[in-house]
Amino acid sequence: MRQTFVDTATALLDDDPRTAVVLADISGAAFAPAARAHPDRVVNVGIREQLMLGVAGGLALTGLRPIVHSYAPFVVDRAYEQIKLDLNHQGVGAVLVSIGASYDASSEGRTHQSPGDVALFDTLGGWTVHVPGHADEVGPLLTAAAAHDEPVYIRLSTQHNAEGRPTTGMQTIRRGSRAAVVAVGPMLDTVLAAMEGLDVTLAYTNTPRPFDVKGLRALGHSDVVLVEPYLAGTSSAVVSDALRDLPHRLLSLGVECVDLRRYGSPEDHARWQGLDAAGLRQSISAFVAPGGGPARGRG
């Protein structure tokens, strides 16, 4: 996904004189050829993430379309105030593209983890959030985001599905009778493995904001399991509001709001969080069983 992002952003710099890229050292080497070709529109501010967002806001005010890039905890958590003030408050947009996701860089420790990034954008409102599940989804999402002036966040991950599904909105993968399971971005293949033999509907989205409420309701289930690769419960209010006129049950699965104080691999963290196939199967099976309730997560 990261290489596809670099390639697509470089092509946009070549093709669209309105496009600019703002970095804070991360991926600086990958964008070096683009910086040589477009020194006025590839800006590397060094290890100054807050400044990176300030520069992006200034570029947007001049009519450029800035693409801002770093690890999620640096571009979102660390620079949240600048996102709020230099973009939202100024009434301008940018395309923020992160790597690292919730725990892709778990070997670097807690400083490189950002499970709460999407929840932070919910406090601002008005942001489109894309969580691609495959590299083939990155190019179309970034190209579309660069073509307008609204605020967009694209969350890249090293975890990925076997097949790309570039269409945004709710996509039905398979039908069942017991409940609807909605997998966000790179969680799809793990959810598929967890659901083997379960009589449930499976849907996929790479765009949790704005959430496809119409698509969710079209699934036709009042029992819903939401599996997101970031903080558990991030989209629970949106889903509950979408079903507010119906008696419904919701199980929200994701990264728990707890600091594990561990390193380990991304696979270790998925297992510790119950987000591997075995953990998801246990949670989903208990929820859809007759008389079942939420086994873990937020319901």
Structure description:
GO terms for molecular function: magnesium ion binding. It comes from Phytohabitans flavus. It holds the Pfam family Transket_pyr. It contains twelve helices and eleven strands. Strands 2-1-3-4-6-5 form a six-stranded parallel sheet, sandwiched between helices. It is globular, with a radius of gyration of 19 Å. About 35% of the residues lie in helices and about 20% in strands. The protein starts with a helix and ends in an 11-residue tail after the last helix. The C terminus is likely disordered. It has about 300 residues and is an alpha/beta fold. The chain folds into two domains: about 150 residues, Rossmann fold (3-Layer(aba) Sandwich), CATH 3.40.50; about 120 residues, Rossmann fold (3-Layer(aba) Sandwich), CATH 3.40.50.920.
Characteristics:
299 residues; alpha/beta; Rossmann fold; 2 domains; six-stranded parallel beta sheet; five-stranded mixed beta sheet; Transketolase; Transketo_C/PFOR_II
Topology:
Elements: H1 2-15, E1 19-23, H2 32-37, E2 42-44, H3 49-61, E3 65-71, H4 72-78, H5 80-89, E4 95-99, H6 117-122, E5 128-130, H7 135-146, E6 152-155, E7 171-174, E8 180-184, H8 188-194, E9 201-205, H9 213-218, E10 223-231, H10 236-242, E11 249-255, H11 266-272, H12 277-288
Parallel strand pairs: 1-2, 1-3, 3-4, 4-6, 5-6, 8-9, 8-10, 10-11
Antiparallel strand pairs: 7-9
Helix pairs in contact: 1-7, 3-5, 8-12
